[in-house]
Design goal:
It is a single chain. With about 280 residues, this protein is α+β, with helices and mostly antiparallel strands. The protein has helices at about 1-25, 50-55, 60-70, 90-105, 110-125, 200-280; strands spanning about 30-35, 40-45, 80-85, 130-135, 145-150, 165-170, 175-185. Strand 4 and strand 5 form a beta hairpin. Helix 4 (about 90-105) packs antiparallel against helix 5. The termini are far apart. About 15% of the residues are buried.
């Protein structure tokens, strides 16, 4: 069945993405994409620190390609690494940064870590951020701490476009879960209303009129050029046609002359024959 083939293919892609994410921990791994090419499978890895993934003289990539070939039966995997433009707008990288900082500094400075990450993310242009840290922090009793700043949608179509990620930090007290949600700056909300002044409206009107005039001028110029081309083509056709007729007429006149000469020759021959017969 075709459906089963699609399911098995997507399951294999998910397993490859999970394997790459687990093997590339704490190196700024964001996400992985898989593409099919005529040469084989192309795996695109997005990360904040590509140098750590590549390794010295490409040793890490070679090991990763070997393991992918053996474990997932890939024919010719080609790994490509791209750098993430803005690190603080990627929820996966931010969650990994929080987890690594908690493992490094411990649970005593978790509030400072959360507030610093929030200021960095909002300074990068994000509309809002939410960080949930759950575990035995700071005492032996499990608790959830929430860090929130800006505006964040929780429902609707715009909530599906929010970048979210999960990460885990292994501490002495136990495992700590980290959940990060970031609202990107390019997200358009349905209730965004902008009030414009009269000056702005006038500027927009003048700009629109200028654009329309330019477009009309371009259209008129194109029409004139097309009409000129059509007239030139018609003139060329008119000039070419009589030449053909003249040639045809000349050929016809030549044929008629030949025919008339043949007829005269025939009449001369017939007259000669009659004269010879009469003499005999």
């Amino acid at each position: 069945m075709i459906e089963r083939q699609f399911v098995t293919q997507k399951l294999k892609e998910f397993q490859i993405q999970e394997f790459i994410g687990n093997t590339l921990k704490r190196v700024g791994h964001s996400h992985t994409k898989m593409l099919k090419t005529p040469l084989g499978e192309k795996i695109v890895i997005y990360a904040s620190r590509p140098g750590l993934i590549v390794g010295r003289k490409g040793a890490n990539i070679k090991d990763l390609t070997r393991t992918l070939k053996k474990k997932f039966d890939l024919t010719n995997p080609q790994i490509e690494i791209n750098e993430v433009e803005n690190v603080f707008l990627d929820a996966n990288i931010v969650a990994e940064m929080i987890a690594s900082s908690l493992e490094r500094f411990g649970t005593t400075k978790f509030k400072g870590i959360g507030h610093k990450i929030m200021t960095d993310v909002t300074g990068a242009g994000a509309l809002g951020i939410e960080i949930l840290v759950s575990g035995k922090i700071p005492s032996a009793r499990a608790k959830r701490w929430r860090f929130y700043q800006g505006y964040l949608k929780k429902c609707g179509q715009s909530a599906t476009e929010i970048s979210s990620a999960y990460a885990f930090a292994q501490l002495k007290s136990g495992t700590v879960g980290i959940q990060v949600r970031i609202m990107p700056p390019n997200l358009v909300l349905p209730d965004d209303i902008s009030i414009k002044d009269d000056n702005q409206l006038q500027q927009e009107a003048t700009a629109s009129t200028a654009k329309s005039s330019k477009e009309s001028e371009k259209a008129a110029a194109e029409e004139i050029a097309s009409s000129q081309e059509a007239s030139q083509e018609s003139e060329d056709k008119k000039e070419k046609k009589p030449r053909k007729k003249r040639v045809a007429k000349a050929s016809k006149s030549k044929e008629e002359d030949v025919k008339s000469s043949d007829a005269t020759e025939k009449t001369d021959d017939s007259s000669k024959e009659t004269a010879d017969q009469a003499s005999e």
